[in-house]
TrEMBL record:
Keywords: Calcium, Membrane, Repeat, Transmembrane, Transmembrane helix. Cadherins are calcium-dependent cell adhesion proteins. It is found in: Cell membrane. One of its GO terms (cellular component) is catenin complex. PANTHER family: CADHERIN 6 (PTHR24027:SF428), CADHERIN-23 (PTHR24027). It holds the Pfam family CADH_Y-type_LIR. One of its GO terms (molecular function) is calcium ion binding. The lineage of its organism: Eukaryota, Metazoa, Chordata, Craniata, Vertebrata. It comes from Danionella cerebrum. The keyword Ribosomal protein does not apply. This is Cadherin Y-type LIR-motif domain-containing protein. Its main location: membrane. InterPro entries: Cadherin, Cadherin_Y-type_LIR, Catenin-bd_sf. GO terms for biological process: adherens junction organization; calcium-dependent cell-cell adhesion via plasma membrane cell adhesion molecules; cell migration; cell morphogenesis; cell-cell adhesion mediated by cadherin; cell-cell junction assembly; homophilic cell adhesion via plasma membrane adhesion molecules; morphogenesis of an epithelium. The keyword Transmembrane helix applies.
């Protein structure tokens, strides 16, 4: 039995020696696991405050131009800046809100750079010079024997059933 145990141990040892270690996918001096954050935890909150730099998110231009829109703006060369008007803020003595709102609407209507950026949408009319012409004739066409569908039988066996459906009725009437 001792010889048998020794043989098993030698075979196991040889099998373990043959197995190779798998190389890691990332070979680096710095282990990337220190930056991995589990985001599936509910209620993580603001615990991860060390992994980003808020200074990279700040732009000095944004701080200065905080009132200007950063998205789509019309070209300033096309539109001169609108004259600034002094708007009156309704107070307790002057409770006429209608004048205040009308003044704001007039200011925004006269400012071409104010959103929304609308464009004129033009639509073509049906008929009268349209490429499609009038579609009203489609409803007035009757399906009583005005069309000759005999050409469908010339299209081959794939269209035989269709030819029988449309062209077959005329041959039954003639006989």
């Amino acid at each position: 039995m001792d010889e048998r145990k020794k043989g098993i141990i030698v075979v196991l040892f040889a099998a373990l020696k043959r197995q190779k270690k798998k190389e890691p996918l990332i070979i680096s001096k710095e282990d990337v696991r220190d930056n991995v954050v589990s985001y599936n935890d509910e209620g993580g909150g603001e615990e991860d405050t060390q992994a980003f730099d808020i200074g990279a998110l700040r732009h000095p231009e944004v701080m200065e131009d905080s009132k200007l829109r950063r998205d789509i703006l019309p070209s300033e060369s096309l539109y001169p800046p609108p004259p600034l008007r002094r708007t009156t803020v309704p107070s307790r003595e002057n409770a006429d809100v209608r004048d205040f709102i009308n003044q704001r609407v007039q200011d925004n209507d006269s400012n071409p750079t104010a959103p929304p950026y609308d464009s004129l949408a033009t639509y073509a009319y049906e008929g009268n010079g349209s490429v499609a012409e009038s579609l009203s004739s489609l409803g007035s066409v009757s399906s009583e024997g005005e069309h000759d569908y005999n050409y469908l039988s010339e299209w081959g066996p794939r269209f035989r059933k269709l030819a029988d459906m449309y062209g077959g009725e005329d041959s039954d009437r003639d006989s």
